[in-house]
Amino acid sequence: MQRIDTDVVIVGAGAAGLTAATELVKAGRTVVVLEARDRVGGRLWTDEIDGAMLEIGGQWVSPDQDALIETLDELGLETYPRYREGVNVYLAPDGTRRTFEGEIFPVPPATEQEIVTLIEKLDALVAEIDPERPWEHPDAKDLDETSFARWLETQTDDEEARENIGMFIAGAMLTKPAHAFSALQALLMAASAGSFSNLVDADFILDRRVVGGLQQVPLRLAERLGDEVVRLGQPVRTLRWNPEQPAEGVVAVTEELEVHASEVILAMPPVLFSRISYEPPLPRRQHQLHQHLSMGLVIKVHAVYETPFWRDLGLSGTAFSPYELVHEAYDNTNFDDPRGTLVGFVADEAADGVFQLPAEERKARILESMSHYYGEQAKHPVVYYESDWGSEEWTRGAYAASFDMGGLARYGADLRTPVGPIHFACSDMAGKGYQHVDGAVRMGREVAAQILEGARAGAR
Q1: C-alpha 109: how far from its chain's center?
Q2: What are phi and psi of 250, to 5 degrees?
Q3: Which secondary structure element, helix H or strand E, spans residue 8, and what is its range?
Q4: Binding site for substrate: residue ranges?
Q5: 3-class DSSP state for residue 31?
Q6: What is the rounded CA–CA span in Å between residue 330 and residue 324?
Q7: What is the pLDDT of residues 378-424, one digit of tens each?
Q8: What three-state secondary structure class fits 454?
Q9: Residue 386: phi, psi to the nearest 5?
Q10: 261 lies in a domain?
Q11: Both 95 and 174 in a single domain?
Q12: For 165-213, how does the pLDDT look when each residue is reduced to its tens digit (9 = 90+)?
């Protein structure tokens, strides 16, 4: 087994881990990044499927994501706007297809008023939430013991209003049923984007894409660091550390390497922390905390057509309905691509259901749902692909981890707290930018600064 000595070992070559590595190297520290997969990027992955470039993982950039935007600028990456000309589509509870413009769906006037009122109430609550410390809100415990579904029920009797508001957090973001996460977790999700209004504004939250795909960020960061720093196909099996003598550092062990370092950063989804054996074990608090986090479940559906036919029909490609199998969909055509691509999403319990079907039947069900928005042509793509992160060994869900009921108020303050020489960083732990690449970049920067500040304090 090869021994490597370095200042910091980082487990995970996603945006958080590679950002941390970049910041540490800039400051003169030596770093080794160990990645279990045979590629960098984590939940960012751009691949060619049947001749079509598809962003299998994360892909959008919104105007408030300044940490990500700074990184894009630094790496020389260009962006382009998501196509949004034309009208959007909404499917009502009875299946009626309606087109609309703006943010509010074409619902009955009384329901529209309820939706507007709910958004105003949520924006007011979100304004009281610090996304870095949501557990410090005076009502945090009560909000965390109330499911988001139940909270909505206390606010309005209008079921269509509840379904539509719930969709933006449950299906579109946390990808869990609204009864499975708390109102506090929902408020954190909204606060991480600046407001609930931002989450319901597709033109804001899904503003732009990166030419060549968002995976270009980790790919270019890794390229700058070099192959000697970033080691692929190296899942860490054991982490040895001494809680009595943190200065002794850590040893990260793969099947081929033994990396000795002063400190380690675990830059991966928290649901994977238990894949590593710790000698000795992590403290009780960490064991409990990590068991209260779980990933959501969503199928990201890519359908490529010879042309973006919906544009000729005057449609933007943006479509919503909490009553459809595909609850939201967008024009996802690549930069300067003459073909058209639609991307749709099937989340939480709906995803459970279709995953029980044979692949061809699942495809038919999903395309049938998309045809309700776009017409018969949607049933006949030339390329069809389903991003299934739930079956991916080194991710196990999407888009990110969130706490179960009561977990955020109970454990949130310890989520990013280092344990001796062991540090934690990933988008799942971010405040601003939570669940997004922007949050991963922020966490990478934060943990690198934490390590460097600790080194400076030790030198004084």
Answers
A1: 34
A2: -140, 160
A3: strand 8-11
A4: 345
A5: strand
A6: 14
A7: 999 999 999 999 999 999 999 999 999 999 999 999 999 999 999 99
A8: helix
A9: -115, 120
A10: yes
A11: no
A12: 999 999 999 999 999 999 999 999 999 999 999 988 999 999 999 999 9
Instruction: Report how far apart, in Å, the C-alpha atoms of 26 and of each of 224, 449, 458 are.
Output: 11, 11, 20
Instruction: Find out whether 437 and 280 touch, Cβ atoms under 8 Å.
Output: no
Q: Strand runs (DSSP E) across 220-335, as ranges?
A: 230-231, 238-241, 250-253, 257-261, 263-266, 277-279, 293-295, 298-305, 315-320, 328-331
In terms of residues, how long is the chain?
Answer: 460
The predicted model gives 223-232 an average pLDDT of: 97
Helix (H) or strand (E) holding 385: strand 383-388
pLDDT recorded at residue 103: 84
- The answer on 425 and 323 residing in a single domain is no
Judged by phi (left if over 0) then psi (alpha if -120 to 50, else beta), residue 264 lies in: beta
Query: Hey, what's the torsion of the CAs at 201, 207, 213, 217, to 10 degrees?
Result: -100
Question: Does 228 share its domain with 180?
Answer: no
Report helix, strand and coil shares of the chain as percent, to nearest 5.
40, 20, 35
* Both structure tokens of 312: 């000729």
Question: Total domain count for the chain?
Answer: 3
d(C-alpha 379, C-alpha 262), whole Å: 56
> How much is the average pLDDT of 285-313?
97
Q: Which two tokens stand for residue 444?
A: 């990478």
DSSP 410: H
CB of 256 closer than 8 Å to CB of 378: no
Both 381 and 315 in a single domain? yes
Tell whether 441 and 329 lie within a shared domain. no
DSSP letter for each residue of 131-186: TT-GGGSTTHHHHHTSBHHHHHHHH-S-HHHHHHHHHHHIIIII-S-TTSSBHHHH
373 and 434 assigned to the same domain: no
Boundaries of domain holding 160:
105-197
Write out pLDDT tens, residues 238-288. 999 999 888 889 999 999 999 999 999 999 999 999 999 999 999 999 999
Known binding residues: 35-36, 236, 345
Alpha helices (H) along 260-356: 284-291, 309-312, 348-355
What secondary structure, in 3-state letters, does 81-134 show? ECCCCCEEEEECCCCCEEEECCCCCCCCHHHHHHHHHHHHHHHHHHCCCCCCCH
We report the CATH number of the domain holding residue 109 as 1.10.405.10
The pair of structure tokens assigned to 40 is 């960098």
Residues flagged as binding site for FAD: 35-36, 236
**Contact (CB, 8 A) for 197 and 1:** no
CATH of the domain at 12: 3.50.50.60
Tell me if residue 456 falls in helix, strand or coil.
helix
Rounded Cα gap, residues 295 and 293, in angstroms? 7
